[in-house]
Amino acid sequence: MTGPRERMVASAALLIRERGAHPTAIADVLAHSGAPRGSAYHHFPGGRTQLLCEAIDYASDQIAARLARADSAVALFDGMIAGFRTQLLESDFRAGCPVVAVAVEAGSPDATDSADPVLQRAGAAFTRWTALIADRLRADGADEQRARELAMVITTAVEGAVIVARATRDVTPLDLIHGRLRDLLTEGTAA
Fold first, then answer.
1. pLDDT tens-digit profile of 116-137?
2. Burial (CB count within 10 angstroms: exposed 0-12, middle 13-18, buried 19+), residue 17
3. Which of 1, 2, 118, 187 is deepest in the core (most CB within 10 A)?
4. pLDDT at 71 over 70
5. Which residue from 166, 33, 55 is spatially nearest to 106, judged by alpha carbons?
6. What is the DSSP string of the chain?
7. Domain segments of the chain: what residues?
8. Which pLDDT score is estimated for 186?
């Protein structure tokens, strides 16, 4: 059984993937997680920013664990597509990627620096996932450059397809990149 802190982090990630970061208030996280009201400030003395950062880390860990379990690059890619496809359909196209949500919404338009910790965490999550995909591609026989390039194409294409699928309420973008990139993936890992 997880405690209030862990439930709040998981709830924040789930709410962000459906609503985005800005509309997800601490009160919403408390209600969704069932955590006591005072626990937000006890567990997250850094406030909403700390909670968002930890929700990104949680989402990053969940995806990284799935990627690391794949026994081939094709299985990894098929799993990514299947996971997002199921998530979109089961949520009536409300649930996307919480890391994309915070990356798009993070930062103040008036800020001139890139010290936004939420945006830094999102960047770290994408970097981590892309590295895991590249590692799997190399393990399947792709050379270093091809693995890095193909991993970035996969990461950006999947995330972009999820965004377009949500906006159009249609999984066709995922299905299209699945077919096209699977061919490229097979070619990219051939020894």
1. 898 999 999 999 999 999 999 9
2. buried
3. 118
4. yes
5. 55
6. ---HHHHHHHHHHHHHHHH-STT--HHHHHHHHT--TTHHHHH-TTHHHHHHHHHHHHHHHHHHHHHHH-SSHHHHHHHHHHHHHHHHHHTTT----HHHHHHHH-S-TT--S---HHHHHHHHHHHHHHHHHHHHHHHTT--HHHHHHHHHHHHHHHHHHHHHHHHHT-SHHHHHHHHHHHHHHHHHT--
7. 4-188
8. 81
What Å distances lie between residue 126 and 40, 123, 151, CA to CA? Answer: 27, 5, 11
Report d(CA 11, CA 98) in Å as an integer.
Answer: 11
Q: Which CATH class is domain 4-188?
A: mainly alpha
| Cβ burial, residue 185 (10 Å; 0-12/13-18/19+) | buried
pTM for the model: 0.88
